[in-house]
What we know:
Blueprint: H1 11-48, H2 51-62, H3 67-105, H4 108-126
Helix pairs in contact: 1-3, 2-3
Amino acid sequence: MTDSRMTWQNPRILSILLLVFVCGAMAGAVTMRLGFSQSLRRPQSYWKEGGKEISLDRFRRELNLNDEQARQMETVLNDFVMYYQSLQEQMNDVRAQGKFRITQILNEEQRQKFNRMISDLQTKQIK
């Protein structure tokens, strides 16, 4: 007798897909942190430190924007900042969920080693 469930509803397949997704997300996060850490930190700190206003003033001046264009430009820049922050929060959630799920798989000794590995990666990112 064959299983009448569609293959995408098979818990084993869904588990494998989820595991692949989590591993891919973690690999991407680690790669981005290690490979592009400097270039990724600059835009975030740039926008937090008044970069939007600097950009808007520069756009206004160099592009000779009228008041309506400047208002629209500010809206776009505000949307970008909100979108960027939302993506950062989503990535943090994905990382935290992946880390949590991995720690649930490991025994206590493995968990401690895993946490040291993560801590070492974070220390390298700061440098």
